[in-house]
Structure formats: structure tokens, C-alpha cells
TrEMBL record:
InterPro entries: DUF805. This is DUF805 domain-containing protein. Residues 173-205 are annotated as: Disordered. Residues 184-199 have a biased composition (Polar residues). The keyword Transmembrane helix applies. The chain crosses the membrane at residues 30-56, 68-90, 111-131, 137-162. The lineage of its organism: Bacteria, Bacillati, Bacillota, Bacilli, Bacillales.
Amino acid sequence: MEERVSFGEAFILFWKNYINFTGRARRAEFWWWMLWSSFLFVPLSALAIIIVAAMFFTLLNGLILDMFFSLFVLIICVILFVLICLVLFIPNLSLLIRRFHDTGRSMIVPIIYMAVILGYNFIQPIVAANINENNSVLWIFALLFMLTFTGLTIYILIVVLLPSQPEDNKYGRGPAGKKFEQGHTPTSHKSYSETTSGSHHTHYE
């Protein structure tokens, strides 16, 4: 039986496979990184909430200078949040694709999902700007968009919870396959039994 990816190894593999859209990623690798990711976003989000609460408190008490300071800190938090999201976007996509590969699925759904997320960032301001207008077409479009996003989110959550496909597939070796050394990335299913894989993580479960 193959070794499972540890908490520390998942962090290293995430950055080593920054733009690796081939190969497979076991559940342990995926969920350990989700935990690492929460260490980045949860404290930052909590700090932003505290700052917003402090801004309202200072505004109610007429402390204008304190409010502007809180606003400045909030802007810094938002900038950091956006920068982190930009830095993690590609490796998060590659990890999700490899997790899909590990269950025998293609990268189509993860790519569509990320495109929907990007689209939301453009659509949300438009909807917010017209929230008081009776624009039925806009609201129908926004509703369909949210239903699509919700459906894809549920489907992806189910897939990433699935166990690895035990046998080898066209994306890499399965947990039941013979353990092999790291090396060249094969280009066909046949080559997985003859050559080695270029993914840094396919020998883990």
C-alpha cells in the first residue's frame, strides 16, 4: 500500500506542482492543502470583520480619525486577500484538476467552474448596481448563474470526496498499481506500465 501524503508534504507538493495540470492527486493531498489554505484566509477574514465592526463603532461615536485608520487597515486587508487569491488561483486549479484525474475524470468541469467564479466577479457588481431596478432579464440571468454555480459546487464537492480510482488510468498510476520511481511523464496509458511519471505526487495516496 502506498504512503499517504502528510500535512507538511501536501504544502510542498502544492507549490512544486504550481502549474502541473497532469497526473493525479490523492484525497489526502487535496484536503491537507484545504487546511493550509484555511490558515491563510480565516485569520484574514476574521481581522476584516473586526475592523468593519470597529469602523461602525468609531463612526457612531464620532471618532473620525479612528474610523479613517480602520478604513486604511481594511483596505490593506482587502489588497492582501486579493493578492493571495491571485497567487493561489492557478495552483488551486491544477490541484483540483489532478484530484479529478485521480477519480478518472477530465479537467473540463474544474475549468468551467473557475470560469464561472471569474464571471461572478464581473456580474456581481452589475447586479449590485441595478438592484433597485426592475430588470427581469438581468435577474433571470443572475438566478441561472447562481444555480449553475451552486450545482457545480455540489458536484465538485462530491468528486473531491471520492476515493482514488484504484487502477491505473490515462492520468497516472492508481493506489493499486505497482509503486514506481519519479521520472518522465508518460503520454499514453500503455506507457504507465513501462515508464515513470513526471508528477511529483502520483506515488502518494
